[in-house]
Predict the 3D structure of the following.
Amino acid sequence: METKKVINPANKLLQERSSIRKYNKNVKINREELKNILHDAMTAPSSLNLQPWRFVVIDSEEGKKLIEPCMMFNHIQWETSSAIIAVFADKQCADYTEKIIGEDIRLGYKTAEEGQKYIEKIKTYTSSYSPVKLSNSIMLDCGFVIMQLMFSAKNYGYDTNPIGGYLHNELSAALNMDTDRYLPVLLISIGKADEKYKDTNRFSVDEITQWV
Ligand SMILES: Cc1cc2nc3c(=O)[nH]c(=O)nc-3n(C[C@H](O)[C@H](O)[C@H](O)COP(=O)(O)O)c2cc1C
């Protein structure tokens, strides 16, 4: 196993994130702070900058009750977290192409001509996607935002646990999500840690890397 080396603040954040499953129930993260955490996370890259991630933040008692039957073996996170963030991938993200590129033009990041060309490029490219390619692409993008969300939370003094063990269809139904459009990706519990970090090992770089 490789030793963890803390070199700079970013590296510290990487080394100090670990899954926390039990939180201090008395610490409630307010919506403004949750919005800031999401805002920072959304600097994540995405294919063609289509940003297919959609969030449902479950931070009320009623909301928590709605999703309780979907939590499988992850009850402790459900019970103690300040919020659970459900991440969905929007299969219709390309519908927002004009809005996204229009904003780039308005902000002076692209000229009108560059923007128009880019819009054409996105439309041509995305219209050739098979359903599997589309799902893979938007799920991958959501993976980036989720990772950033977990680091962002840490930056604000909170901890998280990515949760894949939940009843996906039931959760979509409980949250009234259109299942033809939104793919369930992952839940993230967030709160103030009320347990020690548990170390988990990683492969060494040499075990899993080839050099060509
Ligand atoms: C896609 C995904 C799904 C996961 N699902 C669960 C889960 O359902 N319950 C849980 O307690 N942890 C879950 N985890 C957390 C992993 O168990 C954890 O990340 C891994 O053991 C490494 O530990 P660390 O996060 O502390 O570094 C999941 C992680 C990922 C990336």
Remarks:
- Residues 20-92+134-195 form a domain with the NADH Oxidase fold (CATH 3.40.109.10).
- The chain has nine helices and four strands.
- The beta strands are 53-58, 83-90, 159-163, 182-191.
